[in-house]
Amino acid sequence: MLTSLGLFLQVAVQTGTHILFGILGGILFEKAGNTNLGTEGMMLLGASFGYLVGLVTGNPLFAVFAAGIAGAAGALIYALIAIVLRGNQIVTGLVLTTFGTGVANYLGKTLTANPLPESVTKVFAHKAIPLLSKIPVLGPMLFDQSSYIYASVLIAVLLFIYYKYTRLGLNVRSVGENPASADASGINVFAYKLCHVLLGGFLCGLGGAYLSLVFVPRWQENITAGAGWISIALVIFCTWNPLKAILASWAFGALKGLTFKLQNIVIGSTVISVSTQLLDMIPYIATIVVLVIMSFKFKKENQSPASLGVSYFREDR
Question: I want to staple 23 with a disulfide (CB 3.0 to 4.6 A). Which of 47, 91, 189, 245 is the partner?
């Protein structure tokens, strides 16, 4: 029983890791006051370019870096339109998703029939930590995973420390809350917004690459399957807190894994088969329900940045 639970939680972490990268990218966008709905597009860019570079070079580090750069390039498009030209942030994000999907589908035509070399897949294979991986339940979940998963947790912890305990983190929170006041106090609002949007795009690209390089690892059309949209919703669910993002993504992964467990329900000698299409809806329905409930219970400290989605015009200060 404990072994089965440990394996289930291990899969839940694996299933939610790309969501974690998407949430962390979203936190970087929104803490700086930018609403970016292009997470799905940036994840697809990262997945496709990461796979392409891994396929061509056989170098896992090059593949991961290329994925992050592809996501950051998508974020740069958003930054130029929404921050520099002060275009509508919602529309720009939607356009970015459409653009990223189109580019990934185009590249995917040449990637589908080509598996990754072993030099890439071996690096991202499970690496059990001695002794700790033998702990019942928590051992397989936390200490028998890919290095990519360990990196995602480390990034989340570092982001929490950054926002909570550093001066730069305080500055970017000020930019998200009141950019005019931040500007008046000498903070370069434009630089903070641009840097955090690009870094957020980089993380989204890494999330997409996790799917194509680690989780699958093959190229599949629409490999993200709406994960970018779920990430945007879970940014709100975790109240813009990177540590809560870890739990939120793993909870989503557990719900996703539960759909496989419920396909055939055994009651006595009767086996009830449930439609996979209905089961696939469970994580998304749960996300909607949680967001509705939380909308009535937001404490002041857990609310979104006050200037989220509002373009900053220095001349209006």
Answer: 245
